Recover the amino acids of this structure.
């Protein structure tokens, strides 16, 4: 698991190698101190782990920038649906 902090939101990346040797990356956005978690499942496959990690981190930062996570003051379920389609 890879962790990062962006604008006071913790980002946890979880890399998953697929049966065809391609990679996907899920991530969680975690706010503190209330520890509200928004989980986003990676749906796009990448040839390398580095490409999957880079895409997921940029996607997570974009979600933070637009307030699409639990703890941002907006309904989280709506945001999780929107984020999972990216």
């Amino acid at each position: 698991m890879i962790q990062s902090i962006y604008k006071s939101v913790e980002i946890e990346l979880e890399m998953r190698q697929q049966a065809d040797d391609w990679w996907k990356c899920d991530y969680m956005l975690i706010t503190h101190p209330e520890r509200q978690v928004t989980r986003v499942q990676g749906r796009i496959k990448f040839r390398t782990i580095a490409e999957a990690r880079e895409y997921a981190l940029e996607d997570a930062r974009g979600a933070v920038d637009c307030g699409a996570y639990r703890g941002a003051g907006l309904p989280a379920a709506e945001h999780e649906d929107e984020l999972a389609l990216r």
Helices lie at 49-66, 76-84. Confidence is low (pLDDT under 50) at residues 75-79. The domain at 2-84 is CATH 3.30.160.350 (Double Stranded RNA Binding Domain).
